[in-house]
Give the backbone structure.
Amino acid sequence: MLKKLTFLSLFFTFFTAYSQVGGESVYRFLNLVSSPRQAALGGKVITFYDYDVNQPLYNPASINEEMNGRLAVNYANYLGDVTYGTASYAYTHDKHVNTFHGGITYINYGKFDGRDEQGNATGEFTGSEIALSLGYAYNVPYTDLHLGANAKIISSTLESYQSFGIATDLAATYIDDKNDINYALVVRNFGTQFSTYSGTNEKLPLEVIAGISQELENVPIRWHLTLENLQKWNVAFSNPARGEETIDGGVNEEKVGFLGNAMRHVIFGAEILPQKGINFRLSYNFRRAAELKLLEQRTFAGLSAGFGIRFRKFRFDYSYSRYTLASNTSLFGLMINL
């Protein structure tokens, strides 16, 4: 029955929900990856259910006692002078599944040279955004179903303009211990601005994500399948560089078919030796690969990779990804068991 309900909810979400993808909302930094482990597995994995205290930033239903006392900090020089980072901590109040999670997501856009409409210098300005979150998960009695929620307070400063907002993440995770399969469904960033930049209320980057993962029985690999941006079916766009020239000198835009658009919702990744002191991760993000594809040139844009190393109470994680053809992004993370 549960599997049927899960399938129906995914089907309904996939075809009827709505919202934005890129460039159609404020506070886009909320959808940046939360950790090197997540980045190495494609960017939006929601099916971890273990020690990883970074995971509740994306899926609050993953909060559990194994995260108790763990502190994680992550940092990336994203693009150019843009830097961002996250921090997470979990605390178990008692043994009756009362574990709470706190998190911070921060981005600094660097310094810019200000100009007026005539091109005259007006001095330097900066931009930054931050979100503070508090999360809690609840295990439905006598079941393997976990429900969770994050409450977020968001602050954004862009030059002399400021905006404040609130948002929540709602999530469900089902753990099939017998087959070692995790299922998850998350609705992220459902909220609103209560203080706008210039009097116009803008949408938040609402996103619906579903995922499934399994650790293979006789092979030390856990694979992850993630379906992103389920709130909007058409996430593909035509790339002018891939258009076909017509006889009269015009250009026919690239046509993205049903399968091409469907695959842009898919991320696939695998974690090798997931239970060991050192493990390796590799993934392929189909939408990122399609958007950064160049004619007659290999970009490897959809691929991400990384590793994790445990040293007693410390764990170091690293990921290598490409989000733009101009540069690659390395994300570093450190987790401490306090």
Q: What stands out?
A: The helical segments are 2-16, 36-40, 258-263, 286-291.
